[in-house]
């Protein structure tokens, strides 16, 4: 069934038309990825679909009663908002349904007429279905689960006090709790570490409603969507069935067909031109139609491969033997140690990816290496010929009031004369360089603040690469870039003969670019792994399995020492365990675990059915509050039993 239909959508800003004539349909439960070059209007289209802005032309039709939730790139919160208040906003539709359900239950108790009684029962049944769709009766537990997993434990904290990453996590929890019919996500993985991106991918995979997603994370896109919509400037929107990999295969096939058609057209045009040149005889009246056809063909534009930004690097001095080194580096903020005894030696040609949870100190480590922060212990050694260019994820180096041309290093409009840059030993006009970066002359006169996030990112990278650096320090350079520009950036870094330090949550990007990974574990420690991100994940899992605690062997003729109880030595080390061995008591516990879980789930399901039954409110409305408390307790018990089952299975199965 159709959930949303967009017809003839168009949007312009001044003389610049973002898109025109966009027509497409979203079906119920469909997972769609929205792709296109930076500036094509992806974010603007999402805002139109969310009714946050109006199009200049066209209309959007939404199925009656459908709930749409929109998560923008930079979520907004009202002044004075707390984590708890934002989750209450998310649960407002459910709260309204619960209140309506309770009101109907009260009316049901006093209903005398049989027809009215039947009508109220039917309304309560519909409301019960609505409550189940919105998350059921146990939403407080679900909210706690989401926030705990997202690393936002403090419900009473003001949102304004949170970091950008924490605010994004609250917004994600808020969006997921609404249980919408259509979830619109614009770059949801920005500011999230790789482990949280993995978790969000699994959470969205369980979503009942439809999903429209804008993301530069190609693994995320590939795993979640079953259709791709591509916005092409000047050519509307094209639909490709399948995931991201299938989309790429179809694009390759279409480009091959178009290239063949272009070759045939060029040969045809050449034949027509040769015929026209035969002289006056060829241009008699009976040949006028052929002449007009030839002229039309020559006026037509043949197939053109979509342009990609041509990022290029200015020539840099060759690195010396010492590039950049950190020895025993420590950094503390108050009582918190962010970096502890960190050792890193970078060599020419290395591309080091830096990963870790948010707050682990990735950006802090970069700033210590660059001398922006002094270490509390240890030292940083910089090679004599090392020239560093630093990409700041906050894009602080861009002045929003400057024009694109000025921001790229050009002279202000009042000054005459052409500006030039040095690229690969050649002198190139700055205007031509910007045009190669998909900033045509009209855009070069625009102010930076009018650019999209991806266009600003591309501009900052382009300016950075003109600095003639042999060490590139890039802090989240992939945010907001379109997929085509990401491919260009990957190719540039792979061909760069200097050294790269790269912080990014983009797993695909790390897999293609990184030669080694530095993992900040969150407790100040840093561990270096050879290879790309996938190799790092494999080696980390193997190390965790090898380090799994083994059970302490009993001395001859004696018994193994019991693990300390809750009332015993709290600081004592937990008893070592060897995977593959369970005690007699644990074996009996595991054997009965499946039945215990089944029984708990049956009690929980029965209580949910009781709460969903309108007769419950008519017979004993006063007991409903207690039933809901019992439901929360049962939900927690089911989770505890599952966790214990997994724990026992890991002991028995060697941690697999």
Provide a concise account of the structure shown.
By secondary structure, the chain is an alpha/beta fold. It contains 22 helices and 20 strands.
Written account of the structure:
With 656 residues, the protein is α/β, with parallel strands linked by helices. Among the domains are: 81-177, no CATH class; 247-299, no CATH class; 324-544, 3-Layer(aba) Sandwich (Rossmann fold), CATH 3.40.50.300; 584-653, Helix Hairpins. The strands form 5 sheets. Strands 5-6-7-3-8-9 form a 6-stranded mixed sheet, sandwiched between helices. The protein has a 6-stranded mixed sheet with strand order 14-17-18-12-19-20, with helices on both faces. Strand 15 and strand 16 (426-429) form a beta hairpin. The longest helix is centred in the middle third of the chain and has 33 residues, at 244-276. This is ABC transporter related. InterPro entries: AAA+_ATPase, ABC_tran_C, ABC_tran_Xtn, ABC_transporter-like_ATP-bd, ABC_transporter-like_CS, ABCF_ATPase, P-loop_NTPase, Val-tRNA_synth_C_sf.
Notable characteristics:
single chain; 656 residues; alpha/beta; Rossmann fold; six-stranded mixed β-sheet; 22 helices; 20 strands; 19% strand; globular; Val-tRNA_synth_C_sf; ABC transporter related; DNA binding; ABCF_ATPase
Tell me roughly what share of residues is in helical segments.
40-55%
How is the biggest beta sheet arranged?
Answer: 6 strands, mixed
Report the C-alpha radius of gyration, rounded. Answer: 31 Å
What structural class should be given to the helix and strand makeup?
A: alpha/beta
Assembly form of the protein: single chain
- CATH level-four homologous superfamily name of the domain at 324-544: P-loop containing nucleotide triphosphate hydrolases
The side-by-side strand order for the widest beta sheet comes to 5-6-7-3-8-9
Q: Give the DSSP E fraction (strand runs of 2 or more residues).
A: 15-25%
Number of strands: 20
* General shape: globular
Query: How many distinct helices?
Result: 22
| Reported CATH architecture of the domain at 324-544 | 3-Layer(aba) Sandwich
Main CATH class of the domain at 324-544: Alpha Beta
- Terminal residue distance: 42 Å
Mean of residue pLDDT values: 77
Under CATH, the topology of the domain at 324-544 can be stated as Rossmann fold
Any low-confidence stretches, pLDDT <50, length ≥5?
551-579
InterPro entries: AAA+_ATPase, ABC_tran_C, ABC_tran_Xtn, ABC_transporter-like_ATP-bd, ABC_transporter-like_CS, ABCF_ATPase, P-loop_NTPase, Val-tRNA_synth_C_sf
GO molecular function: ATP binding; ATP hydrolysis activity; DNA binding
Protein name: ABC transporter related
Domain ABC transporter: 4-258, 324-547
């Amino acid at each position: 069934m159709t959930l949303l239909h967009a017809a003839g959508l168009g949007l312009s800003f001044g003389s610049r038309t973002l898109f025109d004539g966009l027509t497409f349909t979203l079906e119920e439960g469909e997972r769609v990825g929205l792709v296109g070059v930076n500036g094509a209007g992806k974010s603007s289209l999402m805002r139109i679909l969310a009714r946050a802005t109006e199009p200049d032309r066209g209309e959007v039709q939404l199925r009656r009663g459908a709930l749409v939730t929109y998560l923008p790139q930079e979520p907004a919160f009202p002044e004075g908002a707390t984590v708890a208040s934002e989750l209450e906003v998310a649960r407002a539709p459910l709260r309204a349904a619960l209140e309506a359900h309770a009101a109907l239950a009260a009316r049901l108790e006093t209903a005398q007429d049989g027809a009215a009684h039947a009508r109220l029962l039917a309304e309560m049944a519909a409301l019960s279905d609505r409550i189940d769709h919105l998350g059921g009766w146990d939403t407080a537990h679900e909210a706690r689960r989401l926030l705990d997993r997202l690393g936002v434990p403090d419900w009473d904290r003001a949102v304004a006090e949170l970091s950008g990453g924490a605010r994004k996590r609250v917004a994600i929890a808020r969006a997921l709790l609404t249980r919408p019919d259509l979830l619109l996500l614009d770059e949801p993985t920005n500011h999230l570490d790789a482990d949280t991106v993995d978790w969000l991918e699994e959470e969205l995979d369980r979503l009942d409603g439809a999903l429209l997603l804008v993301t530069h994370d190609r693994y995320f896109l590939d795993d979640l969507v079953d259709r791709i919509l591509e916005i092409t400037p000047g050519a509307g929107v094209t639909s490709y069935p399948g995931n991201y990999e299938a989309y790429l295969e179809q694009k390759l096939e279409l480009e091959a067909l178009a290239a063949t058609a272009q070759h045939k057209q060029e040969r045809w045009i050449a034949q027509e031109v040769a015929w026209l040149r035969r002289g006056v005889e060829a241009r008699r009246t009976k040949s006028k139609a052929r002449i007009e056809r030839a002229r039309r063909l020559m006026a037509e534009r043949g197939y053109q491969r979509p342009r990609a930004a041509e990022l290029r690097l200015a020539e840099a001095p060759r690195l010396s033997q010492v590039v950049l080194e950190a020895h025993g580096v420590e950094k503390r903020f108050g009582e918190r140690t962010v970096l502890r005894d960190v050792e890193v030696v970078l060599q020419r040609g290395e591309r080091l990816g830096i990963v870790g949870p948010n707050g682990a100190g990735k950006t802090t480590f970069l700033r210590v290496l660059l001398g922006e922060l002094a270490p509390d212990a240890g030292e940083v050694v910089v090679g004599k010929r090392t020239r560093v260019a630093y990409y700041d994820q906050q894009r602080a180096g861009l002045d929003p009031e400057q024009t694109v041309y000025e921001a790229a290093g050009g002279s202000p409009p009042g000054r005459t004369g052409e500006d030039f840059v040095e690229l690969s030993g050649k002198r190139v006009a700055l205007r031509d360089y910007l045009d190669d970066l998909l900033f045509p002359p009209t855009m070069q006169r625009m102010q930076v603040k009018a650019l999209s996030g991806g266009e600003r990112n591309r501009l900052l990278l382009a300016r950075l690469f003109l600095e003639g650096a042999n060490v590139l320090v890039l802090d989240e350079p992939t945010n907001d870039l379109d997929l085509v520009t990401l491919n260009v950036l990957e190719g540039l870094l792979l061909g760069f003969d200097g050294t790269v330090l790269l912080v990014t949550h983009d797993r695909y990007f790390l897999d293609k670019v990184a030669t080694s990974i530095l993992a900040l574990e969150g407790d100040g420690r840093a561990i270096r792994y050879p290879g790309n991100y996938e190799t790092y994940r494999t080696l980390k899992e193997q190390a965790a399995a090898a380090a799994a605690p083994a059970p302490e062997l009993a001395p001859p003729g004696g018994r193994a020492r019991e693990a300390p109880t809750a009332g015993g030595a709290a600081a004592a080390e937990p008893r070592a365990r060897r995977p593959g061995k369970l005690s007699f008591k644990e074996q009996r516990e595991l054997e009965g675990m499946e039945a215990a879980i089944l029984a708990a789930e049956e009690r929980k399901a029965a209580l949910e059915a009781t709460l969903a039954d309108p007769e419950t409110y008519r017979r004993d409305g006063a007991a409903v509050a207690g039933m809901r408390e019992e439901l929360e307790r049962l939900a927690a018990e089911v989770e505890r039993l599952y966790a214990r089952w997994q724990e026992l299975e890991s002991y028995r199965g060697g941690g697999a």
